[in-house]
Specification:
Blueprint lengths: L1 H20 L18 H7 L5 H13 L5 H16 L10 H9 L4 E6 L2 E3 L29 H4 L5 E7 L12 E7 L5 E3 L2 H14 L10
Antiparallel strand pairs: 1-2, 1-3, 3-4, 4-5
Helix pairs in contact: 4-5
């Protein structure tokens, strides 16, 4: 029995070696808002990273393959998500709602329905709507007005919808669509159609690569 237990421990060590061998600067980098533009292929490669030097090169290549404006765009959209979608100690940029805003940009409309009833588009106030051209955020702290304040600490079970018309849809998607999210808490958020949302995330992530992905070879 003891031999079996030891064998099990030895077997498990390689499985967690990658994350355990990295410093706190990189250990969970792939789950951070900065890494939302990772493609599925890049996420698979990240699992093989063993040292901080490899991680540093990986992150450098990640940004090098993408537009020089990506860092500034991420900073703006993370600021929006943190300001308006944080719940308690959970940062908005680390939630599913935040990921939608960071990857897709500002929607044409936001709709929320709660367990106590339904709130149609616009009924939570025009101030809660995002606006902007070409799916960018020109002024991240002015697109959502004070009407959104009530959403910050809401713990009530609700469904949250982001509507993207053709004008606001990311070019990689190119058509109007809606994202529905079920929210139980800041850390418990699920897409109403997970497969469809993941496909859209992947499309936007792939489209973000503007140079030859040499690091993937």
């Amino acid at each position: 029995m003891l031999r079996l237990r030891c064998a099990a421990v030895v077997f498990l060590i390689p499985l967690c070696g990658s994350a355990a061998s990295l410093s706190s600067s990189y250990r969970n980098w792939d789950k951070s808002p900065e890494a939302y533009y990772l493609t599925s292929d890049e996420r698979s490669l990240w699992k093989n990273i063993r040292t901080d030097a490899e991680a540093e090169k990986f992150v450098g290549d990640y940004f090098a393959r993408r537009s020089p404006e990506l860092r500034a765009q991420l900073k703006e959209r993370i600021a929006v998500a943190d300001k308006y979608f944080s719940i308690g100690k959970v940062k908005g940029s680390e939630t599913l709602r935040g990921k939608v805003i960071i990857l897709f940009g500002p929607p044409s409309a936001i709709d929320r329905s709660t367990g106590s009833g339904s709130m149609g588009k616009g009924s939570i106030g025009e101030d809660v709507r995002y606006s902007g051209g070409d799916a960018t955020v020109s002024n991240p702290l002015s697109n959502v007005g004070p009407g959104a304040a009530g959403l910050i600490h809401s713990e009530q079970a609700e469904r949250f919808y982001f509507d993207y018309d053709k004008q606001h849809a990311p070019p990689a998607i190119g058509k109007a669509f809606r994202v529905g999210i079920s929210i139980k808490s800041g850390s418990d958020q699920e897409a109403l159609d997970p497969k469809d949302l993941e496909e859209k995330f992947e499309a936007v992530a792939k489209a973000s690569i503007v140079t030859s992905p040499t690091a993937l070879k």
